[in-house]
Amino acid sequence: xxxxxxxxxxxxxxxxxxxxxxxxxxxxxxxxxxxxxxxxxxxxxxxxxxxxxxxxxxxxxxxxxxxxxxxxxxxxxxxxxxxxxxxxxxxxxxxxxxxxxxxxxxxxxxxxxxxxxxxxxxxxxxxxxxxxxxxxxxxxxxxxxxxxxxxxxxxxxxxxxxxxxxxxxxxxxxxxxxxxxxxxxxxxxxxxxxxxxxxxxxxxxxxxxxxxxxxxxxxxxxxxxxxxxxxxxxxxxxxxxxxxxxxxxxxxxxxxxxxxxxxxxxxxxxxxxxxxxxxxxxxxxxxxxxxxxxxxxxxxxxxxxxxxxxxxxxxxxxxxxxxxxxxxxxxxxxxxxxxxxxxxxxxxxxxxxxxxxxxxxxxxxxxxxxxxxxxxxxxxxxxxxxxxxxxxxxxxxxxxxxxxxxxxxxxxxxxxxxxxxxxxxxxxxxxxxxxxxxxxxxxxxxxxxxxxxxxxxxxxxxxxxxxxxxxxxxxxxxxxxxxxxxxxxxxxxxxxxxxxxxxxxxxxxxxxxxxxxxxxxxxxxxxxxxxxxxxxxxxxxxxxxxxxxxxxxxxxxxxxxxxxxxxxxxxxxxxxxxxxxxxxxxxxxxxx
Length: 592
Ligand SMILES: Nc1ncnc2c1ncn2[C@@H]1O[C@H](COP(=O)(O)OP(=O)(O)OP(=O)(O)O)[C@@H](O)[C@H]1O
What we know:
The protein contains 20 helices and twelve strands. It is of the alpha/beta class. It is elongated, with a radius of gyration of 36 Å. Pfam families: ABC_membrane, ABC_tran. Keywords: ATP-binding, Cell membrane, Membrane, Nucleotide-binding, Transmembrane, Transmembrane helix, Transport.
């Protein structure tokens, strides 16, 4: 845990914007406690007036005063709680929103290294703990000070000896809550950790359900799940056991302190009955009982408050840890304005890149230029660095400065939004959201007219598929919608990118699930539109052959560049790739 000063500043930071509401809540609490201190005195007065000869009017008057005060108290209590809890809820929702927005600006590489379940835990469980600390705990802390501050003097004024007796068991109550509370907090965290492990496993298994089925691993996955489930169950049961021991124990202590008060109070009542001026009136005794009872709950809650603070501080630290993580891919301090007339000219100069956790350079000095409107294929063996080039062009990972220029502008000097309006990147893995087909296609351009959507769907050779969907463009797709084939997903992602009408379109193996003829048809459409320069990264050499030029990559470098026919007749990696693919194709045909 951080030092107290740091903890205090953290709390202050969260509460500062809600100062007025908190102050209003504190005033309401004070009013509540003042009424709470006066009420037993009124009860005392009303009872002590019940001497022989009291009138019903006197009794009714006393009862009416009590009723009015009790009603006012209930209303003020509600207001004070609403005010303080609202602060907790406002901090909770604000913090969660900040956390979500902060995750959105992080680069995918970092997010994929983090466990999803862990991030969800921080955005839900930990943020909830912060709410409890700033709502429940702040309320109880202020309240307990006020309850004791207003009630103790009144109790002492009635009978100092019995006041000590009434409070004598409170330390035991606090000690018990402290002891149990620490264990409860530990178990709650453990339970939450098991829950996030379970949600990680569910997520992973549902994503990889095909692999599980293909390798017949259902039984193993069942076992892995049941182990985690058992851990969760054990933590939940231990927590339930702890709670069902603690709460009755607290009730017992509270009953004991009342018993003690009754036992000692009886003597004081008897003394008063015998005319001893030091004795205690019945009204005074009832008032003491009421005070003692009103102290039990805040005292027990005070024990929980300390734990809630400790747990809340740890949670706030965990949330702030994520918030403190600076995104690595950001807008430049002073961004260049975008070139007003984009043409789609791309220059890549001496581009080197090494992944953070890798020893070897993925790109070892890549050089190439794409002229406006050119359709250029980038081919090469697996792992040679093609996708790395695509990711760098879209700044999904960051290229060094002065190595990638779009229309003469270093892409590191552009705002990210500007860059992404100029480069449309279609990744290998097409992702569709749970939304209609139309909303999926216009995801990057939500205001696009339907006619435009239809136009670009046709360019991506998707029209026939859409016609075949039950509700055409209004068909729900994604997780809960109909399942699209890999090729349909890829063409949807392509149509989505075409809608952006960016001057440079980068297809990162984005037609891998589409047959050669369809891929060539799509490339023809792109060539006819000529609205963008296109970098077509692919393993499909037959489709690549129809491009204006082919770039060949090997071990992180461009080693050949030229027209297909020229390269095919040069001995080199392209010729080898082409022959290997021709052999594989004829081999696979021979199997049919
Ligand atoms: N996130 C990463 N962290 C570390 N190394 C990576 C990462 N992504 C890729 N690499 C490595 O960088 C090199 C280039 O990978 P890249 O994905 O660019 O190849 P590729 O040519 O697109 O391959 P493929 O044709 O199989 O898609 C490979 O050695 C790969 O292992």
